[in-house]
Design a protein that fits this description.
The protein is 46% helix and 14% strand. By secondary structure, the protein is an alpha+beta fold. It has a single domain (7-371), classed as Cytochrome-c3 Hydrogenase, chain B (Orthogonal Bundle), CATH 1.10.645.
Length: 373
């Protein structure tokens, strides 16, 4: 690490990769001047799974499994991202009902992801109580996912051409019950944070990310919107049924950790708004395209190239697929929002206290299944 002072004037410290506040297997190589961080170097690669390369060795339908395991707390958004590209390449259009179902499930998954982040962020800053609140709320969502897909976390619910199972009356009832009770409970959790003076003092004015720096690093999602940039793929390039529902893009102009916190909480409120509209507008009809035969064993062939963009809970999730006319993709490449967002930590971690670095890195919302894909 290059510095303006001799190396013997600094202390080098490894934070992670087994540190609870690095949110996974992340190693932060710090150069310290007392309690002040002069330089931070994120070291990744402890969770490599080679998901993109494995997808090139498997059939188009089977590749969906590996996307669940990228952002594993937001697996339904990962599935939607892959299918945006795969269905373009294969020339398969899902029915309208399937698109509405995907929209609902993607938004519920976004809420689940933000709840995990809120609980973990509270723990980072010494707050235990919110963790139990948010995980109780998330459990209700996992019950919905289980009823729809049979799985709590890695759902594998969406498929090329639609979804594997239609909504039944029980699933609809569970979703309606959740969106009825969730807003009030969310406000209770929100107040646990914003009415806590310690939380405010540890996030307000900390980790300021200027708009131009965020854009130059390719930062997206709540990180970018927390810096005052009103950009959301759901509005900029609508997919699924997002152009058929009304919702706002939460933006904060404080550019700090508190601003990113507020953006994510408002996003959960907007997700409930989207789900309510979707439940009212969802039509009857088939939930998969017969052309896809709704089977993992079907040998679909794709030729050409396609790129799909979606808005995951972390930011813009992109999937690029090249097909050579065979039953397996020739190339699969993922644009990971978390990877881009993590890269800006070099800027945010300059000349801050060690304790503030914990608050800053936690505000990025890191999930390393996606970074080390």
């Amino acid at each position: 690490m290059e510095t303006t002072k001799p190396l013997n004037k600094y202390v080098e410290l490894n934070m992670g990769p087994q540190h609870p506040s690095t949110h996974g297997v992340l190693r932060l190589r710090l150069l310290l001047d007392g309690e002040t961080v002069k330089k931070v170097e994120p070291v990744i690669g402890y969770l490599h799974r080679n998901a993109e390369k494995i997808c090139e060795l498997d059939y188009y339908c089977d590749s969906l499994l590996y996307f669940d395991r990228m952002d594993y707390v937001n697996s339904l958004s990962m599935e939607a991202g892959y299918l945006e590209a795969a269905e373009k390449l294969l020339g398969i259009e899902p029915p309208e009902r399937a698109k509405w179902i995907r929209t609902i499930m993607a938004e519920l998954s976004r809420i689940a992801s933000h709840l995990v982040w809120a609980g973990a962020y509270g723990l980072d800053l010494g707050m235990l109580t919110p963790f139990f609140y948010v995980f109780d709320l998330r459990e209700q969502l996992l019950n919905i996912f289980t009823e729809a897909s049979g799985s709590r976390l890695l759902t594998n619910y969406m498929s090329i051409g639609g979804v594997y199972q239609d909504f039944n009356d029980k699933i609809v009832y569970m979703i309606k019950d959740f969106i009825k009770t969730f807003p009030k409970k969310l406000e209770e959790v929100f107040n646990l944070f914003v009415k806590n003076d310690i939380f405010i003092s540890r996030t307000k004015g900390i980790g300021v990310l200027e708009k131009d720096i965020a854009i130059s690093y390719g930062v997206t999602g709540p990180m970018l919107r927390g810096s005052g940039v009103e950009y959301d793929v759901r509005k900029a390039e609508p997919y699924l049924m997002y152009d058929k529902v009304n919702f706002d893009i939460p933006v904060s102009y404080t550019k700090d950790c508190l601003g990113r916190f507020l953006v994510r909480y408002e996003e959960m409120r907007q997700s409930i708004k989207i789900v309510k509209q979707a439940l009212d507008k969802i039509p009857d009809g088939p939930y998969f395209n017969p052309k896809a035969k709704k089977s993992l064993m079907i040998r679909l062939r794709g030729e050409g190239e396609a790129y799909g963009r979606t808005e995951s809970s972390k930011g813009e999730f992109g999937v690029y697929i090249v097909g050579d006319g065979t039953v397996k993709p020739y190339r699969v490449r993922v644009r990971s929002p978390t990877f881009k967002n993590l890269s800006v930590l070099r800027e945010l971690g300059k000349d801050v206290m060690i304790a503030d670095l914990v608050a800053i890195s936690g505000s990025i919302d890191l999930v390393f299944g996606e970074v080390d894909r």
